[in-house]
Amino acid sequence: MDISAEGKISRRSVLANGAMIAAGLAVAPLAARAQSKASQADTTRAITGRDSLKAHAAHHGLLAGTAVNARALATQPEYARVLAEQYDIVVAENAMKWGPLRPTPDTFFFTDADALMAFAAEHKMKVRGHNLCWHSQLPTWFNSTATKENAQHLLVNHITTVAGRYRGKIEAWDVVNEAVQVSDGRPDGLRNGPWMKLLGPEYIDIAFRTARQADPHALLTYNDYGVENDSDDAGKKRAAVLALMRGMKARKTPLDALGIQSHIHAGGSFGSGIRDFMASARDLGLKIFLTEMDVNSSNLTDNDIAHVDQAVAATYRDYLTTTLAEPAVAAMLTWGFTDRYTWLGGGRRGQQPSHPQRPLPFDANYQPTDAFFAIRDAFDHRQTRQA
Ligand code: 9MR
Fold first, then answer.
1. CA nearest to 366, candidates 96, 33, 142, 62
2. Cα 380–chain centre separation
3. Ligand 1 atom closest to 24 (CA)
């Protein structure tokens, strides 16, 4: 990015930045990188080998993971190094979604997804698949091509092809993502998205049954957000997700796991709502994955980086202390690991455009932040409640 003597960002750099964002690379502004040097990054404590996140997680029966940005993996050696050093489970942030995988109705683009699978195999990492059916990030041709008549064939063919290609190599598939949206007003709480409009609520069972056939080894997962905190809205969403999962179990739809995305906000409160929700999922025989954790600090008005990092870390600690106490939790993944590449990159803290968010365990220079140590401590102090 170009910054003029007056500190203004040039149009050319804004366009270049836009192109990189369009390519899936969120770019931390220079200001962020400069600031992070003066931040609380702790370079004195050992963080590799037996001090890594994955080593500490393993002591407590957990996998430690992250979403992976395909372009960063392909082009940034430092990114790949930290990834291999810290994590034992990965998920493609975008590369296995319909949009990137399906340039046309008749073709598949597997290059980025295959590259992640190869990296994971080389480093003996497990892989989560994300995702096989979602209302969002559908290819541009979808709206004009999908009809009530061909939708089931499209869905089944996609899942058979994609889950079949990686059969036996995926720990867990997010088969259906974000199917609940209480505010859409349906009595069952299900989202009135494209698949619902085309196929009715049966699309969920169709997706899971097809996934089981395509890859009998993968844990088939329902994944959603907005169920974490103590708000009324989260409570309603938890109830709708549970009703969905109970219905699936009653119909013998193959469902093995619940994914709780865990995109949370600094200072949120996480109590009996999420605890009881997880216990109910366990009662259904499900494993639980924390699938996409990060801590959004847009609500903080304090611009002191040390304070922001402490608040973000405190929220990681608080949330993980509550959720990791649930014995069904098998893995904790963050949605990216470096603030250099985060979907919250365009977001801001407070009202300050020059203060980007710091939601992840490594800053934009790959230095561990307070969040790294909060996560590692939460692994260390995991004490599971009685199952
Ligand atoms: O981080 C992802 C971002 O790069 C994409 O533009 C966006 C739209 O597809 O999806 C983001 O990831 C989402 C994930 O797939 C599902 N849960 C919410 C995540 C953050 O929006």
1. 33
2. 22
3. 4
Average pLDDT, the chain: 89
Q: How crowded is the C-beta side of 323, counted as CA atoms within 13 Å? A: 31
Look-up of token digits 């080998």: 49
pLDDT at 36 over 60: no
pLDDT digit string (tens) for 88-106? 999 999 999 999 999 999 9
C-alpha to C-alpha distances, 4 to 16, 35, 150, 165, nearest whole angstrom: 15, 18, 54, 49
Region at 340 (left for phi over 0; alpha for psi -120 to 50; beta for the rest):
alpha
Distance between CA atoms of 163 and 218, rounded to whole angstroms?
9
At 48, list the tokens. Answer: 């590799």
The residues facing 190 across adjacent strands are 180
188 vs 332: CA distance, rounded Å: 29
Query: CATH for 11-380?
Result: 3.20.20.80
User: Burial, 282: exposed, middle or buried (Cβ in 10 Å; 0-12, 13-18, 19+)?
Assistant: middle
For the Cβ of 346 lying below 6 angstroms from any atom of ligand 1, the answer is no
3-class DSSP state for residue 180?
strand
Question: Which helix (DSSP H) or strand (DSSP E) does residue 330 occupy?
Answer: strand 329-334
Question: Among 21, 27, 93, which is best to mutate for testing ligand 1, by the most ligand atoms less than 8 A from CB?
Answer: 93
User: Which of 26-35, 53-62, 163-172, 214-223 bottoms out in mean pLDDT, i.e. has the lowest?
Assistant: 26-35
Q: Which pair of structure tokens corresponds to residue 236?
A: 């309603």
- What is the pLDDT, as a whole number, of residue 345? 80
CA-nearest of 328, 327, 363, 343 to 68 is 343
Closest Cα to atom 21 of ligand 1: 343
Q: Give yes or no for residue 292 CB within 6 A of ligand 1.
A: yes
Catalytic residue positions, numbered: 178, 292
Q: Which of 136, 59, 89 is nearest to 343 (CA)?
A: 136
Residue ranges per domain, the chain? 11-380
